[in-house]
UniProtKB/TrEMBL annotation:
This is Mobile element protein. It comes from the Bacteria. It comes from Microcystis aeruginosa NIES-44. GO terms for molecular function: metal ion binding. It holds the Pfam family DDE_Tnp_4. Residues 1-26 are annotated as: Disordered.
């Protein structure tokens, strides 16, 4: 997958019969912290049905504005 998507970051997998190093565990924790921010923003968009309902006004880049607004709201709530 990393060959197809150059900028993708995947967590380290535990090898069979082995354990992850402390460094690999820390990298997985850092990745999880970054992922949860985006996942919470998308869950907020879904919760308010912002992308499932029909929006009839014509506003340029409305989808992008909506995602950025949801991200801002949830980042503010998390602080």
């Amino acid at each position: 997958m990393q060959k197809q998507y150059v900028n993708i970051r995947l967590p380290h997998k535990k090898p069979k019969g082995g354990e992850l190093t402390a460094e690999q565990k820390q990298e997985n924790r850092e990745l999880a912290k970054e992922r949860v921010v985006g996942e919470n923003a998308f869950s907020g968009v879904k919760r308010y049905r912002a992308v499932s309902d029909i929006y009839r006004n014509r506003v340029a880049n409305f989808d992008a504005q909506l995602i950025l607004t949801a991200y801002g709201i949830f980042m503010g709530a998390a602080a």
